[in-house]
Every structure is written in C-alpha cells, then in structure tokens.
Fold this sequence. Notes:
Blueprint: H1 3-30, H2 32-39, H3 45-66, H4 77-98, H5 104-111, H6 114-126, H7 132-152, H8 159-181, H9 187-212, H10 219-247, H11 249-256, H12 259-269, H13 278-297
Amino acid sequence: MTAQDSATPTASIAVSSGTLQAALGVLAFSLTFPSTVWGLESFGPWSLVAVRSVLAAVVAGGFLRAMRVPLPDRRHWAGLMVVAGGVVVGFPLLTTLALQTSTTSHAAVVVGLLPLTTAAFAAVRTGRRPSRTFWLAALAGAAVVIAFTVQQSGGALQTGDLYLFGALLVCAAGYTEGGRLAREMPGWQVIGWALMLCLPLTLTGSAVALAFEPVRLTAHGVIGLIWVAAGSTFFGLYVWYRGMASIGIAKASQLQLAQPLLTLVWSVSLLDEPLSPAAPVAAVAVLVCIAVTQRARS
C-alpha cells in the first residue's frame, strides 16, 4: 500500500466528518426562528436577546477556559467587535423584534437572502470582483425577496420587514469579518471571544430588561431560550465553522441553501403556522439564485 493509498481513506473520513458538522450547523440555524417564537412566550424581546447572549457566553467561556485558549492579539479586537455587533447583538435583536409581528416562514424567506448579502459585503471588504453572472443572480434573488415581502405585507413594507432587512445587513457584516478572522484563528474561537466581549453589555442588558419586561415561564419559553443560546448561538456556529474548515466554504455554503426550506418545515410542524403558497415558491427561487452565485464564484 502506497502512502497515497493510506492517505485517501483518512482524507475521505475528514471530508465526511466536515460535511456532517456543517450540516448540523445548518440544522441548528434552521431552528433559530421557531425557538425564538417559543422564547417570546416567556420573555420580552430585549430580555430574550440579552439572556440568550449571557447563557451563550457562559458556554463559550467554559470552552475557552477548559482548552486554555490565550487572549486574541490586540489587532483582532476591532474585528471581533464587528462580529459581536452583527452576530451576537444585532441579528438576534432585530430578528426577535421582527418575529413579534412576522411569521417564521415570512422571516425565513427574507433572511434566506443572507448568503447573497454576505457575498456582497465580502466583495467590498476584500476587494474581490465577482463575475457579472454572480451579480445578476444576486440582484434576481434580492428582487424575489423584495417582491415576496411587499406582496405578503399588503403592498407596503411593515416594521417587521425593516427589522429583517436591517438584520441582513448587520449579520452579513458580522459573517464577513468573522470569515476574515477565521483565517487567523479557529472559527469557534471567533464567536467565543465575540460573546465574551459582549458579556458586560449583555449582563447589564439582562438586568435592566428583566426588570421592565414581565417573565412568564412556560415549557416552550424555556426550551426556546436554551436552544437559541446553546444551540443556535454557540453549538451551531461551533460545528459550522469546523465544517467549513474541513470541507471549504464553497461546499459548506451549498448545504446552507436548505436552511430557509427547513425553517418553513419547522414553522408548520412546531408552530402550526399556516404556510402561504408564495413562501416555498419564493424560498426555492432564492435557493436557485444562490446556487447560481456559488457556481459563478467558483
């Protein structure tokens, strides 16, 4: 047996493991919106976002301490602040506020545009010049989402829609900066340190929000809080970044195409939400646009 023959099974196992980890990340993310709706049964929007970030920081801090991870270099802190503002605070807060009036299926279609938005931010941040095909597909995907949003909102954008579009922008910025930092440190450490960076703010926010927003604990509310904290915010990003490191960003992003459709399934099965006929059609259309951009980029 040659060295190449012995290395092939090892490489195959690594790819298989990476694909599984990335897929687990997508599954975790797809449950975020239904879990947020459950969490809102027990907590106000500001309390839910602050407490989920505190709990996620506790989990992340435990991992960082157990693995004796040193503090990041000073040059990384500005980037970590962008990740914290976009992924830890901005996206959870804006989507939680949106889900007070929007259905999870509606939000899933709008936020399904996130890969395209992130790609646009990355092109600006890194100075890359994607092809014309990429930009045409990106614009087509944006047009589908805007048309769907306006049609579902009765001809005009609602407050919840504005929150969702804002969430797209801040999360794309956080993902882009996180992707840049993940070239210099493990991705799970990026989200871990971003959570720790926010801890003083989220602890203060939790104390203030819990004092003003009533808490009515229910089984759904507690499960929703635990999932968005430990499942979506930490575990999901942990396995997602590990998967990307193993199989590459391009292959991992193909798996993420299933996320809006999975969220539609959860919205019907877990929340008993009525599913608009336009939602799966728009989700599939966005999926096709993203698939075209991925092929154009590669």
